[in-house]
Amino acid sequence: MIWSLLFWLGLAVSLFIGIIYFRDLGDVSQMLLKVKRRNMIRFIRNEYKLIGTGLAAAVMMALAHLFGAGPDWLFWIALVVVAILYGFPWVWVHLGLRNQINSARFYSIEEAKKFVSPASGVLVIENNGKARAHPDYQMMRPHLAGDDKGLDGENVVMTYCAMANLGLAYTPEIDGEKLDLEVLAQHGNNLILRDNNSNEPIQHIYGQRERDGKNGPGMKSWPTFRMSFRGFQKAYPEGEVFLNKPSSNLFLRLLDLVTDPAFSIGIDRQHREEKPVMDNMSHSDDRLPNKTYVWGINIGDDSVCYTQDFMVENGNLLNATIGSRQVVIVWDPIYESVGAWYNDSGFPVTRTDFFGESDQGKLRRIETLKPGLFWHVWVEFFKNTDINRVDLVHQAV
Predict the structure, then answer these.
(1) Long-range contacts: 190-198, Cβ < 8 Å, 24+?
(2) What are phi and psi of 44, to 5 degrees?
(3) Residue 127 placed within a domain
(4) Element (H, E) at 230
(5) Domains: count for the chain
(6) Rounded distance, CA 295 to CA 297, Å?
(7) Beta-strand pair 364-365/121-127
(8) CA–CA distance, 236 with 239 (Å, rounded to integer)
(9) Same-domain status, 131 and 54
(10) Host domain of residue 339
(11) CB distance 61 to 10 below 8 Å
C-alpha cells in the first residue's frame, strides 16, 4: 500500500512541476499559451529548487515501481514525459541560449565583412574612441556579449532581445555588486534576465532587479545606438565587430544547427506580422502600428519615442525637453544612424554631426536611448509615452 501511494504521489508531483517548468520557461510554450508574468518570475527565482523537487519525486516513483507499484506502461510513458518536460526547457535555456558575457570574440572590420552585409544593422557602443559593433543576427541567440578586457578597460556588456529588436549596453553590476547574468525567459516581448548570484530576475528594458522595482538601483546604462554596418565602417574604421562563430564543441555545434533556424524563423515572423509571435502583452496602443521601429528615451518619469519618418519630415534634427532636460534627436543619413544627445547649453541646437560636435559645443549621448525597438514593446513598458514630441520654443527654425 505504501509503495503504491509513493508511486502515485511521485508521478503527480513530478508531472505537475514538469508541466509548469515547461509552461513558464519552455519559451515555445508561449506561442500557444499566455503565460502569466508572476508565474514566470516565481519559477525563475526558484528554478533549481523546483527542478530538484520534481526530479526527486520522479526518483521516488521509480523506486516505488521497483517494488511492484504502478503499471509498467504508465511508468515508462511517465519517464519519457518527465524527460521531455524537464530536459527540453533546461537544454533550451541553459545550452541553446548560452550567453557570451565573458567569452565574446571581437574581430576586425575586414574579417566581419565575410559575415555581415553593408546594409545590416549593428548596435554600437563607444568609449574614448574605441567602438564595438554587434550585428543583430550575430547577437540573436547568445543575447549577451562581452569579454574580460572590456571596452577600453570598462566592464560593459551588450544585451540583446530579438523579440523586441532591442540592444542595450550595461555594466553588469548593481550597487557595486557584480552580477552573474543569464537569459531565462521573455515576457512582454522583452528578455527577463537572472542574476545567478541572487536568483533575482532583471527586466532587460529596465536593467533593474525585480525586487527593487522601477525606482530602485539598476545597472549602469551605456549609450547604445544603431547604424548600418557600412556606416560603422565610415565612423570607426578601427572598430571591432562581434561575431558568433560556430562552437568548437561538436554537441553545441549540432545544437546550434537546430536553435539558430528556429530563432530565425520566429524573429522573421516577428518583423513581418502585426501580431506578436509570442503574444504575452498586457497593454496595447494603436497610435502607431505594432511593428513600427521607434527610438525611445526615458528621463526620470518622462518618456518619449520618435519615428524615423517624423525626423526626416522635420529636417532630421529635433529639439525637445524630456524630464526637464533639453535634448536633441538627430537622423544622420551619411552614417544611417539616429543619435540622441543632451543639450545643456540653454539654446536650441541647429547643427550637429554624428560625433556630437554642434553649434552649441560638444554634446553627450543620452544613455537611456532605446534604439529602434518595436512600438508595441516600448509602449508595454512605458505606457504613458508621448510620440514625436518637439519643443517649439527651442526647435531650430
Answers:
(1) 190/161, 190/163, 190/164, 190/166, 190/377, 190/380, 190/381, 191/143, 191/159, 191/161, 191/163, 191/164, 192/40, 192/41, 192/44, 193/159, 194/44
(2) -60, -45
(3) yes
(4) helix 229-235
(5) 3
(6) 7
(7) unpaired
(8) 5
(9) no
(10) 293-387
(11) yes
Cell numbers 541572487: residue? 198
**In the numeric block, which cell numbers belong to residue 94?**
541553459
Classify residue 368: in a domain, yes or no: yes
Q: Which of 30, 64, 96 is the last residue of a domain?
A: 96
Residue 77 and residue 165 in one domain: no
Whole-number Å distance between alpha carbons of 132 and 127: 9
Spell out the per-residue pLDDT of the chain, length 397, in tens. 798 999 999 999 999 999 999 999 988 778 777 889 999 999 999 999 999 999 999 999 999 999 888 899 999 999 999 999 999 999 999 998 899 999 999 999 999 999 999 999 999 999 999 999 999 999 998 999 999 899 999 999 999 999 999 999 999 999 999 999 999 999 999 999 999 999 999 999 999 999 998 788 999 999 999 999 999 999 999 999 999 999 999 999 999 998 888 888 889 999 999 999 988 898 889 999 999 999 999 999 999 999 999 999 999 999 999 999 999 999 999 999 999 999 999 999 999 999 999 999 999 999 999 999 999 999 999 999 999 999 865 554 4
Residue 139: inside a domain: yes
pTM for this structure? 0.92
What percent of the residues of the chain are helix, what percent strand, and what percent coil, each to the nearest 5?
35, 30, 35
| Partner residues linked to 293 by β-bridges | 374
The owner of cell 520534481 is 54
Q: For residue 263, how many other CB atoms are within 10 A of its CB?
A: 18
- First vs last C-alpha separation in the chain: 87
How far apart, in whole angstroms, are the C-alpha atoms of residue 146 and residue 142?
Answer: 11
CA dihedral (142, 148, 154, 157) in degrees, to 10, reads: 10
